[in-house]
Write a structure and sequence with these properties.
Largest sheet: 8 strands, mixed, barrel
Order of helices and strands: HEHHEEEEEEEEE
Number of strands: 10
CATH class: Mainly Beta
Structural class: alpha+beta
Length: 267
C-alpha cells in the first residue's frame, strides 16, 4: 500500500508523455489540414484566376494582331469549305457543303486555312450560352495549352470551317475551366470560332453524356462513338466536337458535345 503523500513519478512521466504525443499529433493534423486547404485554394481558385487572365490577354492580343493584318500562322489553301471543289472545278456544285455555304465555294477556296505551330494560339472560341471566350491553341498538352486556360485542338482533326471534324478539348475544373458547364449546352445553341480570315458558326445538335476516355470514334472525320454507337453521325460533313472530363473533378470519362457548321463570315 502506497504511503500518503508519495508521488509516483513514473506515472506522472507517462501521463506527460501521452499529453505531448497527443498535442504533437494534433499540431500535425492541423498543419496537414492547412496545407491541404491551401492546395485546394491554389488549385481551384488561383489557377483559375491566373489561367483566365492569361487567356483574356491572349484573346486581346490575337484580335490586335488580326486588326493589324499580321497573320499568326502559315496559310495553306486546303481543308476549307469548298476548297477541294475549287481545285477539282466543282465550285458551287459541292453538295457536302452545309446549308448557307453552297455558292460561296470560290470565296471559301481563296480563304486559306491556318496551319498553326504546336501550342500556338490561332483562333478564338466563343460560346454565348456559357459566357466563354477563350483562345484555341494547337495540341492538347496540359502545361503549354490546357493549363493556360486555352482550349486545345486535337492534332490530325480538321481546322475551323474545314470538311471533317474540328475537335477541341478543354478543362472542366481548374486552370480556367472553360468547359466547366459544357453539359448545359442544348440543341440549337451556337458556338463561334473566329480566325484571322473568318468566323465560323456551328450549331449544337448532339450530346454524348459519357463515354470512355479512349473512345477515338468521337474524333473521327465522321464522328461516331465506338463505345456507344447510337451517338454520332453517319455521313461526311462539317463538324465541331467539344470534349471534357466527366463527372466534375474526375478524369475517368469524357463528355462530348457535337455541332455542325451553319455559316461563315469573312473578316
Amino acid at each position: 500500500m502506497r504511503a500518503p503523500g508519495v508521488v509516483d513519478h513514473g506515472t506522472r512521466r507517462r501521463r506527460a508523455l501521452g499529453r505531448r504525443v497527443l498535442w504533437t499529433a494534433g499540431e500535425v493534423l492541423v498543419t496537414v489540414g492547412l496545407v491541404l486547404a491551401l492546395l485546394v485554394v491554389h488549385q481551384v481558385w488561383w489557377t483559375n484566376r491566373q489561367a483566365r487572365e492569361g487567356a483574356e490577354r491572349r484573346v486581346e492580343a490575337l484580335e490586335r494582331e488580326w486588326d493589324r493584318g499580321r497573320p499568326g500562322a502559315t496559310p495553306a489553301p486546303e481543308d476549307v469549305p469548298g476548297a477541294d471543289a475549287d481545285r477539282q472545278g466543282a465550285g458551287a456544285g459541292d453538295r457536302t457543303a452545309p446549308a448557307g455555304q453552297r455558292g460561296r465555294a470560290d470565296t471559301a477556296g481563296r480563304t486559306a486555312r491556318e496551319r498553326p505551330h504546336r501550342s500556338q494560339a490561332y483562333a478564338v472560341l466563343t460560346v454565348p450560352r456559357l459566357s466563354v471566350r477563350v483562345p484555341v491553341a494547337e495540341g492538347i498538352g496540359k502545361p503549354d495549352v490546357l493549363n493556360r486556360g486555352y482550349v486545345g485542338h486535337y492534332p490530325g482533326t480538321a481546322q475551323p470551317g474545314g470538311a471533317g471534324n474540328f475537335a477541341l478539348a478543354g478543362h472542366r475544373n481548374t486552370h480556367g475551366e472553360p468547359f466547366r458547364h459544357l453539359d448545359r449546352l442544348r440543341r440549337g445553341d451556337t458556338v463561334e470560332v473566329e480566325t484571322r480570315t473568318a468566323t465560323y458558326v456551328y450549331a449544337v445538335d448532339r450530346t454524348l453524356p459519357r463515354t470512355s476516355a479512349r473512345d477515338g470514334g468521337v474524333l473521327a472525320p465522321v464522328p461516331r462513338s465506338t463505345v456507344r454507337p447510337a451517338y454520332g453521325y453517319g455521313e461526311p460533313g462539317y463538324y465541331l466536337t467539344l470534349t471534357t472530363c466527366t463527372p466534375a473533378y474526375t478524369s475517368k470519362y469524357r463528355l462530348v458535345v457535337w455541332g455542325t457548321l451553319r455559316s461563315m463570315r469573312p473578316r
